[in-house]
Amino acid sequence: MKQQFNNNGVAKVQFRILSLPESLLAVEVSAIRENFLSWMAANFALTTSQKFQLMTMPEDLQETLSQAIANSYELGQPVQFFKETASQDDQPDLKDIVINGAETMAELNSQSNRKTAFVGQLAINIRYKVSM
After folding, report:
1. What distance in Å separates the CA atoms of residue 29 and residue 112, rounded to the nearest whole number?
2. What are the tens digits of pLDDT across the range 70-98?
3. Which of 24, 35, 50, 113 is 20 to 30 A distant from 95 in Cα terms?
4. Nearest one of 54, 18, 20, 14 to 36, comparing CA atoms
5. What is the pTM of this model?
6. Cα–Cα distance for residue pair 80/28, rounded to 1 Å
């Protein structure tokens, strides 16, 4: 069942993924790495606006983010995710997306390197700007 792309929905998807046996976890992280947009669409009931934002995401950011998320899950670490709920007055395009730790997490490319190089947690925060 697809989840909403909000705090609760992301938590449910992460719990499911991090509860998988190692062989199924490997399949899941492979899907994230191979086609991040398809993986998002398969796991979340995305709005038209969210689909558009994913499709227009710069390719290098998409690659970094998919690698970072997959590496986090391989390490058994959830992604720290926070999305503000938009009020009635918020415009969907008036938001800041702050990603911390993506470059560090995406660069971890071997099992031995991952355990020694891990220094933090991937964090994604989506905050809505107040319209004036």
Report:
1. 18
2. 999 998 999 998 888 764 444 556 667 66
3. 35
4. 54
5. 0.78
6. 18
